[in-house]
Write a structure and sequence with these properties.
This protein has about 725 residues and is mainly β. The chain has 2 helices and 61 strands.
């Protein structure tokens, strides 16, 4: 046998590691380090068998430890304070320099840290750790009782049993452990070979260690979740259990035994949370509404009775009427009234208290029952006051508790008593139950303003923050020692908005006012259009609340309003030639009576110059109608063009680029190829053309298809 040494440190001759993985928000109440192995007195390190090195998660250096107790080949050190101070407590623990013999056969060694921890949302259990060192062989057995617990008088009894053992060989059977005369076993341990050199949890080999050997060759550290469905190991109402360690053949040693047994009582955990329903995020501003939710879970074995939830609305908030809801054990939400006589919920205005009687059988007069493992939820809404400055003078944040009262059977004496509990933050893992903290978002102090008005304005229309009055900065008129507030702003100047809540709690900001006039920033411009098209005139102005009225000159500066033309932009559609040389202008005004007139602008309307091109799809050279004897394209106002005709083998057989003086195509194909009549059939054409206005012909569209510059023509004989 040889030492395992996983680190690269020169100060260690042996080292190995294992990971601690506790649920979030767990708090450690006990941590004991046990180590030992087969060691002879002739070993050069024998005198150091009670010394060891420990490296905490995240640490780079070892801590030197000396055992608090030693029993022959096993030592123990209480490391509770060390582990509690470890940040984080979860992670990899490395233990080094466990002394044992090496270079010979039939030796063993190992270490285990036994952790007892608390978690508020897990069931309460009785935890026991038994330590020492005892050898078991076929000539002797050990029998003793464990006590100090009281199992549930009815319902399931969950029971976990753990052990640290030495020299339990996998290949030898006959060793066993009995609880109340029933052998202990699971999928990783045979009932007649319980100590088989394995490190397991609930029948699974623990992999979160280095090295993670399946067979540890003589070292055992396991927790077995006993199958106690038939109460073979522990019955209802049990206060003790008989433990028997025995063997028929193989010898082994037991160093640690642990027991975790259900106890009987209601244990209701009340956690809380809130959300801002006015916006995303949890901080709350003036006037916003929050929904508070309290989650209740009975993690005990007994149901509670007379279960009542009570909460108080903080002074800065107002209860939202009719918002109390409760979720039953089936997950269904039910709305409750605010009255005290009709259902299980009520809001008491005098004490600003929300009260909900919870669970089965709850009504308007008494609290209900919450069964073991039962879960309920309560929620309601409240609104923060909308006075930002008053909030600015108030302390923040707001801390509050919700309360839960209930009765229940308390282990182990079966007496009834009233229990009460505060709601605690579900995000708090300190072990100390903390209040719900509402994060109030402090109001931003009002900032100075620069305002421009085009009309006199009432101060009431300025929408000053609540409680503010407006004063002229140089106003010295006093009323009871204070300047007279301004009721209307009709001139430029500097003003002061001011509010005083109490001594030392005053708020003010400056408003600088500019009384301005409306103006024309951009005049309308003349337009030239083609008949049938639309014409558009626009004017740019400065100032709010501007009104527009466009006018047309009916002759000799006789201006008349155009009906409906009251926008910044005047649009004239499908303009005819008769509107040529017409004039237009805009009248501009605001509610204060300020008026402006824009420039008068001229509209020129010219005859249409739009070009066209149409391609026929058939022709007949022998037709009596002259127009049908040639494949000729119809068009006008073309500046240049080209048409080519191809046969079905894609051979060019005719082309033209000739135009008449008016821009129309000058010639067409007569249906001949090299002076000979072409056969009847389909021929291909390709055209490119540009109109006089510079635009390019886009092509022909057939049966609503996209325009194409190629197509077919039928030659008919």
């Amino acid at each position: 046998m040889h030492y395992i040494d996983i680190d690269a440190s020169t100060e260690t001759f042996s080292s190995s590691s294992a990971d601690l993985i506790l649920p979030d928000c767990s708090s450690i109440t006990f941590a004991g380090l046990y180590w030992g192995g087969a060691i002879s007195s002739t070993n050069s390190r024998f005198k150091d068998k009670n010394k060891i090195k420990l490296k905490k998660p995240g640490a780079t250096a070892y801590i030197d430890l000396t055992a608090d107790k030693t029993w022959g080949g096993q030592s123990f050190k209480d490391i509770t304070s060390i582990v509690k101070l470890s940040q984080p407590s979860n992670g990899t623990f490395t233990v080094a320099n466990v002394v044992a013999d090496e270079g010979v056969v039939n030796v063993y060694a190992g270490w285990t840290i036994v952790i007892a921890y608390k978690h508020d949302l897990m069931p309460l259990r009785n935890l026991s750790v038994f330590e020492g060192l005892v050898g078991i062989n076929f000539l002797s057995n050990v029998e003793f009782s464990i006590s100090g617990f009281f199992s549930p008088p009815n319902g399931p009894v969950n029971f976990d049993f753990g052990f640290v053992a030495y020299d339990g060989d996998r290949s030898y059977s006959g060793d066993y452990l009995e609880i109340n005369n029933q052998k202990v076993f699971d999928s990783a341990h045979n009932s007649d070979n319980l100590f088989n050199s394995s490190i397991t949890n609930n029948g699974e080999v623990v992999q979160s260690r280095n090295p993670a050997y399946n067979n540890t060759l003589g070292y055992e550290s396991s927790i077995i979740h006993l199958n106690n469905a038939d109460f073979r190991y522990l019955k209802n109402g049990a206060r003790s259990a008989l433990i028997n360690l025995d063997t028929d053949i193989e010898s082994y040693l037991i160093g640690v035994l642990t027991a975790s047994i259900d106890i009987y009582n209601p244990n209701i955990q009340l956690s809380h949370q809130y959300r801002n329903i006015s916006k995303y995020g949890i901080s709350v501003q003036a006037g916003e509404t929050v929904e508070l939710q309290y989650d209740l879970k009975n993690t005990g074995n007994d149901g509670s009775t007379n279960t009542v939830f009570i909460d108080t609305i903080p002074s800065l908030f107002a209860y939202v009427k009719g918002s109390i809801e409760v979720q039953d054990i089936n997950g269904n939400w039910k709305a409750l009234s605010d009255q005290s006589v009709d259902d299980a919920g009520e809001y008491m205005e005098a004490g600003r208290r929300v009260l909900v009687r919870l669970g089965e059988g709850a009504n308007a007069s008494r609290g209900g029952a919450v069964p073991a493992d039962g879960q309920l939820k309560v929620r309601y809404k409240m609104q923060l006051i909308d006075d930002a400055e008053l909030l600015g003078c108030a302390p923040a944040p707001v801390s509050k508790y919700g309360w839960l009262q209930y009765s229940g059977n308390v282990n182990p004496d079966k007496s009834w008593k009233v229990a009460s509990d505060k709601a605690f933050s579900q995000y708090d893992c300190s072990g100390v139950r903390s209040p719900l903290v509402l994060a109030l978002e402090p109001p931003l102090p009002p900032g100075d303003l620069n305002l421009t008005f085009y009309c006199p304005v009432s101060v009431a229309d300025l929408a000053l923050p609540k409680g503010y009055s407006l004063y002229k900065e140089d106003n010295t008129t006093a009323s009871r020692g204070m300047p007279m507030p301004v009721a209307k702003i009709s001139e430029s100047g500097t003003y002061k908005a001011y509010r005083r809540l109490a001594a030392g709690c005053e708020f003010s900001y400056t408003i600088r006012v500019n009384m301005a006039s409306i103006g024309i920033a951009a005049q309308p411009a003349p337009r030239k259009i083609v008949e049938g098209k639309s014409a558009e005139f626009s004017v740019e102005t400065s100032g709010p609340d501007v009104k527009y009225q466009w006018q047309e000159d009916s002759g000799y500066d006789s201006w008349t309003d155009i009906p409906g033309a009251t926008d910044r932009i005047l649009t004239l559609r499908s303009v005819s030639l008769s509107k040529n040389r017409s004039r237009y202008r805009a009248l501009i005004s605001n509610p204060c009576g300020q008026k402006l007139v824009s420039y008068a602008v001229l509209l020129n309307v010219v005859e249409s110059e739009e070009g066209t091109l149409f391609v026929p799809n058939a022709f007949r050279p022998n037709s009596a109608v002259e127009e049908l004897t040639h494949f000729i394209v119809k068009g006008r106002k073309l500046s240049r063009w080209q048409m080519r005709v191809y046969n079905k083998w894609d051979q060019l057989i005719w082309e033209t680029t000739k135009l008449n003086p008016d821009g129309s195509p000058a010639e067409g194909w007569d249906g001949k190829i090299g002076g000979q009549d072409a056969a009847q059939g389909i021929y291909l054409w390709a055209i490119s053309a540009v109109f006089c206005d510079g635009s390019e012909w886009q092509g022909m569209s057939f049966n609503q298809s996209a325009p194409r510059k190629t197509g077919i023509v039928y030659l008919i004989r």
